[in-house]
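Researcher: Next sequence.
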Amino acid sequence: MEPETDAGRAGLAALLADPAGALIALDFDGTLAPIVADPDAAFAHPDTVGVLARLAERIGTVAILTGRPVQAVRRLARLDDAAGVDGLEVLGQYGVERWDAATGEVVAPEPPAGLAAAREALPALLARLDAGDAYVEDKGRALGVHVRRTADPQGTFERLREPLAALTAEHDLHLEPGKLVLELRAPGIDKGAALGELVTNRGARAVAFAGDDLGDLAAYDAVERLRAEGVPGLLLCSLGDERTALADRADLVLDGPDGVVAWLGSLADRLDG
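Model: Next structure:
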């Protein structure tokens, strides 16, 4: 459960030495919740709320940073009725939506201009590509095309990449590939920018980030930039059945959401001690 790199060990030591000045940001799907065939049923690990409540009492900033809409994370993590999470913040849709658990306030901009046209064109495009059985998750400000439930998930994923890239380019959107999902969203928005902004706004003196998928690489890049600027950082990877590039860059690789939540619990124990 200890980081395997010098930079990771320095990041953890800084977090333990100055928890009030630390920031912990966590991806949701694949990190706090298992990857499942139905994204609407991807409920968080049952110990998530308890461990986040413990950390929120001890760490300066605890945040969930996800491509999901804030409303979906609140439901899937059962945050609305949870006790002790007033210190938690949820940054949804790669940071464009924000929910403060203490106030219940949600801040969200308007959807990107081209999304409505892409939404209208998508069903016919999927049918034409023999991918009508793909599940389209409408996130309000983004569209996720999930292929995990199709007859040939990997083949369908590869077949859709180029046409969906063309569709996003036509409507001034960005295509973000993930684990058997292709997401159409606004350009210029990623977890790295959101994490960097959060670190700056909170004046964090140490940062830890946990993720599992390609969409988390921008946050990894942000932590490494912060390290170069003198802010200690820790990179955690939640490893599932599908290995991603994050595992090769992480300071510590954990066994899926079970491993992530266990590590967070052990961190809370160390802070208590």
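Model: Residues 186 and 208 are 26 Å apart (CA to CA). The first strand starts at residue 22 and ends at 26.
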